[in-house]
Amino acid sequence: MSSIYTDSPLPLIPTPKFQTGKDDPFTIEASHMALSHNAFIRGFNSIYQQAPRLELAADKGSFVGYCLAWVDCVVTHHHYEETELFPNIDKAAGKKGLMDGAVHEHEAFYGGMGRMKEYLQSKGPDFSSKELLEIMDSFKDDLHNHLKAEPPAIVALAKYSTAENPIDILSIAETAGKKQVDLGFLFNTLPVFFLNMETATFERGMWHEVFPPLKGFTRTVMLRLVPMWQSAQWQFVSCTHDGRVKDLAV
Q: Where does the record locate the signal sequence feature (predicted)?
């Protein structure tokens, strides 16, 4: 019997725009980051909630694929930050190391995520839910602390943007983000991001059909057509294609 997804064991984080009502570029970019982080949180929670309830070997194989896609999505996101986003912020500000604190936070949970990936790759459908959850427990606090801390750190960067040296944070983030998407990532990983994003009710629905910024045919392709590839994996997501929490697969 499936059950509705819940935001546990990791709680969601608020967006700076919802908290402050501001809509300057740094607040908006930080809010987009918070929304992305919440997709990672829902992915973590959906794994944590369903792992102990899996029974069929076929389901366990697809579930392993889902878990590995989640790991790859989170790791790729933070890799692009370290190699594209943060260096370009430093370049625009004319200062080095502005986001070094975030990089150190990444290091705190990379080891645990690496162990999770190695464990699932070695065990496959024979994984133990108890052992998997123990690995996840080992890094969940460090991961969540980082996901909470980074959006306010982006807001704080506004002090480095001046009339003489403006920083176009939205353009920097958009350009950096595009560099992480190739065909493999699009089909094998990205659905775990889009389909763990609840927007219908979160923060009174203020982000519904606003973020992710997909419109028309592109939205249909990304949220409906792409997930048809490896659909057995995506049955374990927490949300529907239209941004609503759903019954979990198990």
A: none
